[in-house]
Here is the input.
Amino acid sequence: MAPAEENKIKIIILAAGKGMRMQSDEPKALTLFKNKPFLLHILDTIKKLNPNIKPIIVIGHKKERIKEVLGEDYTYVEQHEQLGTGHAVASTKSVLVRPHEMVLILSSDQPLVSKETIECLFTTHLEKKPAITLGTVVVPDYEDWRINLYTNFGRIVREKNGKIKKLVEFKNTTDEEKRIREINPALYIFDGKWLWDNIDKIEIDPTRNEYKLTDLIHIAFSQKKKIEAVPVANILEALQPNSKKELEILEKLIL
Here is the structure.
């Protein structure tokens, strides 16, 4: 990535979660995969992309442990209440010295997301100039180890003309939407100005007491803003293990 472009970019990593299904009191971001914490896998990938980009890391549960592992070389923002991904991103607004043209948002439990995928997201965003560019994954089916993708991932809902309309979490899907094979791996680039102008428009989901970042897709659609999708060819990049069993499956898939 060219030096001129790095000044236009801010990267936010969401790392405030507990990950209780991992049966550990550690933050989920510090779960070990191939003997290295999830979060360090992602930070190493970002360094390959551009070593001069220092992400903002949103912390919460056991925040001192994350600082202990990563050191003081990053900007940390504490999410004082666990009120969802939209709330986590909104909490970073106060530390941004200036608006950035592009804001990449990653989850800390995506250890296999690649430099190539992130570069493709940025290239598409620069060329198409949408409000949102997101990665999507199309699965052949929900059989074998992919059964975990069935319930763990939201669906990409499109109009008949192919335009993305919304992202729907599995628990909110209709029977028809459950059959959709295009899923959301939670890889987003936002136009910076549009993001900060709209982040406070997210309404709380009363069923979970959360502000969901995915609601921004529907907001952009309702505003007739452009939304671009980048296919992620390697399904494994999407995997976000939520339990020890899912982590064991991922370890076996990556020899």
Observations:
- The chain has a mean pLDDT of 92.
- The chain has one domain: 3-253.
